[in-house]
Amino acid sequence: MKVNIKRLNDNFHMEARGENGEVIEMDGSPDIGGNNLGFRPMQMLLAAVGGCSSIDVILILKKQKQVIESFEVEVDGEKEKVEDHSVWKNIVLHFKIKGQVDYDKADRAVKLSMDKYCSVSKILQPTSNITYKLTVN
Known about the structure:
- The protein has 3 helices and 6 strands, in the order βββαββααβ.
- By secondary structure, it is of the alpha+beta class.
- It folds into 2 domains: about 30 residues, no CATH class; about 100 residues, K homology (KH) domain (GMP Synthetase, Chain A, domain 3), CATH 3.30.300.20.
- The protein starts with a strand and ends with a strand.
């Protein structure tokens, strides 16, 4: 897997391009001279854990023949300063699922993702307390 990062302006606006041509824009915050023209790299980590776990949960629910009408995950993170950098100290994922979905099956799918399958959450676990909430219908 390969990603190419290209600077787009004289400050911190960049694009990350994947091997298949997909693009994500990144930027720095205004307090360091950025223009908020894209995700900040730390926000991308929150998006990554939400996206990774979403894929797991949707895949598990589809295998269980659950009918998902809408699916959303709200990811909330709290940073902590450690020496000269920051880490995500607390991350809460709120899964919001609508459809013909059994709550217990959805809860089990989320637990499997968090505890076993989601590679991004496994990477973040040494420094982050990752928890979840679940709303079905």
